[in-house]
């Protein structure tokens, strides 16, 4: 039996765009694999769960109502109580002599080149053909086909780097890149994440999406391996699929890690890192709701120590990006965004979310977030002396 939360229905009536009836209920769209009548199980901020159709899910997102789509991962967090019993602590940053030389090697050249291609796909929607193609391009860019790893990593470092696809039923896979550490996983894995997919409010429309988070962490990875980074703890870079569908990809990964009892020491999410609203101060938005407090304090210290701009505390609500999947499993997670939430890019989920639409899009601003990703990896992953 399908249950719709009454308050959500009222919000939908008031806020949803009026889609053409024939287009709304048709599943015959070239290049898409999407059944609008498929039932999905959603979870909302108050913990209430509701079964809705895929079409109703799309409408909820268009209305700005945040949720987790837990259809495939209803048990995520079932072992969360075990992690709460042994919560890690995070020391003050102290690897300045290692981090700062790496920061000087960061460049806007790679991000500009990568985004020109990444935003050229009509949409990176996770159930579209171009969404699959964009994921495969990103995978090839990271791995040896278009060799960021082969070009910048020493031969010996390449032996401790692995890249794999985490498969999903919808076809656009999550990408997981791992730099093995000298210690065992029991000492903790450090995760740096971003989502690779995009969507328009109506998924069949174009959605270039500026893709800033994805290339932000890619540039951080490039700088780290160029510096021959050899962590003590394993450091992983994740490019999640289907964030726009209700954090589907990151939930699947977090569920897998939880089932295998992987000790994730810390997870940092990068999503929207390039926008500086005209007339505002350039700053880093530190999300303070639905995150780990201690890791957030550590993140603030990294900004103060290593970045050239200040941070501002801000909130984004329940399930606003992939860090929420890890938080649900009680893994320490944080989220950093391009500004205060109210000053962030308002062109998202539209055809205007492009890198060339406004001088408010800044590659230099994006590099500040690459600095943060580098510092997060080195400070928490540590550095093995050869």
- CATH architecture assignment of the largest domain: 3-Layer(aba) Sandwich
What's the CATH topology name of the largest domain?
Aminopeptidase
- Overall helicity: 25-40%
Q: How confident overall, as mean pLDDT? A: 89
Which class of secondary structure composition applies to the elements?
A: alpha/beta
Q: N-to-C terminal Cα separation, in Å?
A: 61 Å
Number of helices: 14
Give the domain tally.
2
CATH superfamily of the largest domain: Zn peptidases
Biggest sheet, in brief?
A: 8 strands, mixed
Strand order of the largest sheet: 4-5-7-6-8-11-9-10
Low-confidence stretches: 1-28
Strand percentage, roughly? Answer: 5-15%
Count every beta strand, where a strand is a DSSP E run of 2 or more residues.
11
Task: Tell me the overall shape.
Answer: globular
Rg, rounded, reads 20 Å
Order of helices and strands: HHEEHEHHHHHHEEEHEHEEHEHEH
Q: CATH class of the largest domain, anyone?
A: Alpha Beta
Keywords: Aminopeptidase, Hydrolase, Metal-binding, Protease, Signal, Zinc
Protein name: Peptide hydrolase
InterPro entries: M28_fam (IPR045175), Peptidase_M28 (IPR007484)
Domain Peptidase M28: 175-367
């Amino acid at each position: 039996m399908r249950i719709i939360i009454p308050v959500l229905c009222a919000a939908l009536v008031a806020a949803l765009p009026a889609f053409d009836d024939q287009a709304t209920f048709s599943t015959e769209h070239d290049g898409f694999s999407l059944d609008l009548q498929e039932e999905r199980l959603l979870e909302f901020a108050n913990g209430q769960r509701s079964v809705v159709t895929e079409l109703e899910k799309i409408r909820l997102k268009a209305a700005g109502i945040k949720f987790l789509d837990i259809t495939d991962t209803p048990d995520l967090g079932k072992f969360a109580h075990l992690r709460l019993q042994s919560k890690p602590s995070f020391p003050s940053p102290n690897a300045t002599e290692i981090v700062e030389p790496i920061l000087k090697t960061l460049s806007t050249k790679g991000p500009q080149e990568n985004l020109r291609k990444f935003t050229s796909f009509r949409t990176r929607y996770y159930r579209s053909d171009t969404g699959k193609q964009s994921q495969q391009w990103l995978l090839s860019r990271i791995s040896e086909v278009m060799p960021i790893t082969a070009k910048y990593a020493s031969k010996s470092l390449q032996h401790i780097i692995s890249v794999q696809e985490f498969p999903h039923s919808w076809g656009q896979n999550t990408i997981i890149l791992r730099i093995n550490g000298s210690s065992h996983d029991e000492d903790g894995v450090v995760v740096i994440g971003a989502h690779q997919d995009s969507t328009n409010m109506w998924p069949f429309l174009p959605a270039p999406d500026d893709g800033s988070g994805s290339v932000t962490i890619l540039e951080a990875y490039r700088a780290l391996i160029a510096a021959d980074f050899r962590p003590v703890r394993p450091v992983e870079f994740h490019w999640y699929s289907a964030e726009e569908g209700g954090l589907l990809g990151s939930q699947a990964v977090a569920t897998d890690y939880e089932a295998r009892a992987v000790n994730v020491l810390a997870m940092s999410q990068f999503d929207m890192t390039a926008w500086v609203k005209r007339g505002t101060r350039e700053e880093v938005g530190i999300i303070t709701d639905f995150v780990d407090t201690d890791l957030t304090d550590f993140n603030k210290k990294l900004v103060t120590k290593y970045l050239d701009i200040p941070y501002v505390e801000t909130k984004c609500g329940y399930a606003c990006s992939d860090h929420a999947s890890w938080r649900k499993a009680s893994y320490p997670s944080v989220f950093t965004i391009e500004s205060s939430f109210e000053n962030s890019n308002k062109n998202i989920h539209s055809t205007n979310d492009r890198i060339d639409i406004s001088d408010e899009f800044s590659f230099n601003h994006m590099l500040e977030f690459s600095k943060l990703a580098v510092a997060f990896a080195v400070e928490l992953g540590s550095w093995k002396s050869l």
